[in-house]
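Memo to structure team: turn this sequence into structure tokens by end of day. - J.P.
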Amino acid sequence: MKISIVGTGYVGLVSGTCFSQTGVDVVCVDVNEKKIEMLNNGHVPIYEPGLEDMIKYNVEKGRLTFTTSLSESLVDAEAVFIAVGTPPDEDGSADLKYVLGVAREIGRHIDHYMVIVTKSTVPVGTSMKVKAAIQEELRLRKADIPFDVASNPEFLKEGSAVDDFLKPDRIVVGIESHEAEKTMTRLYKAFLLNGHPILFMDIASSEMTKYAANSMLATKISFMNDIANLCELVGADVSMVRKGIGSDARIGNKFIYPGTGYGGSCFPKDVQALVRTADEHGHSLDILKAVEAVNYRQKEVLVGKIKSHFGADLKGLKFGMWGLSFKPKTDDMREAPSLVIIDKLIGEGAQVVAYDPVSMEEAHRILGDKITFAKDEYDACIDVDALIIVTEWPEFRMPNFRVIEKLLKTKTIFDGRNIYEPEEMQELKFNYYSIGRKPVKI
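Reply from structure team:
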């Protein structure tokens, strides 16, 4: 079976590579010539554990190829996946110009039956717009070529995307014909043999499922962050509260860890887009609007703690920062809390020296010379007034505190991910501020 995947961003590249791993012949398409050249030379433009080795393996096997020509990729293809970006527009709605642009190009080149699958995260009704765009191009060509559209949203977590794709909790597919269902069933045959469930439904429900899933997870995060802030005010320990509610099977223990707010390429724009979709239909998603507000406020919580400790005037102070990416195991800094914290500190006249195991290059591209970049985590502690932990990379969990205390000007840590225990910090005689727990003041 041969398929084409248009877009070699995070979703397209991971999806295409994982499909090829199951034996499918995959052609990945992108208009970015430099990116395609990079991929053809064995270089991967994104960081994702396990992805680079899998790409090299399937390229060598001849199952995975890269091109800038969409028309060439459609030759003998049974399905073509649209996996291009849907960035938020100025009003918060998803910008569909790239998705519909690809649809029109498919309409200009399609010459046999195939299923056109929307893989990008798109608002309800987008697949029908894709269908209309293709039909219009066929009308202009005066061509009568059958095709079907389908929706197949992704549920990949950055940092574990390869495992998520190959071992999915569920596969959601929206279809409107039996022929499309047959094609998608064949494509996912390897997953069905391994017992992973595939859920066929109507296209609108499939599109809504993606937004509803991400919005629910974002809601859990913002809820827990709000509870954490209240815990501090009333003297409760959010770690104990989290264990208490997480043991309830109806709630579960995932996505209830307090921190500095969610970021990345999915949650912020998906919540925003769903709110916008509801507004367009005369319905206000008040809960999700509150989720957004809480998340924005949470990204500034550490700055508030810093001011509480050092005073309102931060001019001349210097802070070390561990972690820049929005989460571990990725170099993605889109909507990262670190960017908000850095902007606030610099705006107050402070300096920041930062270290991240993976995202230094991406951070430098975004921040330029606004901050200093350290060579390692301990280098980021030299002569700084306090250490700020923003991303919970594993190598930050058990540092040498004796080395740290000799490097810091004052033994002060602001932990935005609660990776240390207050009791331990008390014994080590550090000023220690975390999220939703009583601060340690020496």
